[in-house]
Amino acid sequence: MAAVPEPDEPGKRKPFKLLGILDVENIPCARDSILYGSLGSVVAGFGHFLLTSRIRRSCDVGVGGFILVTLGCWFHCRYNYAKQKIQQRITRQGMKNKLLYEGTHLDPERKQNSRNSSN
Predict the structure, then answer these.
(1) Is the CB of residue 55 less than 8 Å from the CB of residue 75?
(2) 79-119 pLDDT, tens per residue?
(3) Could you give the residue ranges of the DSSP H alpha helices within 1-107?
(4) What is the model's pLDDT at position 118?
(5) What torsion do the CA atoms of 80, 86, 88, 91 make, to the nearest 10 degrees?
(6) Distance between CA 65 and CA 44 in Å, rounded?
(7) Residue 54 DSSP symbol
(8) Helix 55-101 vs helix 30-52: angle between axes, to the nearest 10 degrees?
(9) What whole-number distance in Å separates Cα of residue 114 and Cα of residue 119?
(10) How far does Cα 80 stand from its chain's mean position?
(11) How far, in Å, CA of 42 to CA of 67, rounded?
């Protein structure tokens, strides 16, 4: 019979999901996007209320501000995250090739050194 993990065990806790679908702890950029979106919501709604004193419209502006700021932060962060992942993959491939070809006749540095010494 398999052992059932106790809820008090460290490292076995249930992930926090926002609205039951967005795993804020494990998805990159989710936490920052939600936090910046909520701050943008408060600033936009309160700023609109101070300017116009219209409560319902200020709430609408706050919701719109939340959506715009959250999506803006999400796409900006995911773009940078994808760019960083590509750079890491290229660097990892280069390091792998360096280790693989170092000291062989296929080593690019060895070819450059032999060309410079013959000139």
Answers:
(1) no
(2) 999 999 999 999 999 888 888 877 777 777 776 666 666 65
(3) 30-52, 55-101
(4) 61
(5) -140
(6) 6
(7) -
(8) 150
(9) 9
(10) 7
(11) 12
pLDDT tens across 24-55, in order?
677 778 888 888 999 999 999 999 999 998 99
Which tokens is 56 given? 């319902």
* 49, 61, 84 from 40: Cα distances, Å: 14, 10, 26
8 A C-beta contact, residue 65 and residue 72: no
Classified as helix, coil or strand, 18 is strand
What span, in angstroms and rounded, lies between the C-alpha atoms of 51 and 81?
38
* Cα angle for residues 61, 41, 68 (degrees, 5° grid): 75
pTM flag (> 0.85): no
Q: What is the pLDDT of residue 31?
A: 82
Whole-angstrom CA distances from 46 to 20, 31, 34, 68, 78 are: 28, 23, 18, 16, 29
The two tokens of residue 86 are 């590509």
- At 61, list the tokens: 């502006």
CA–CA dist 92, 100 (Å, integer): 12
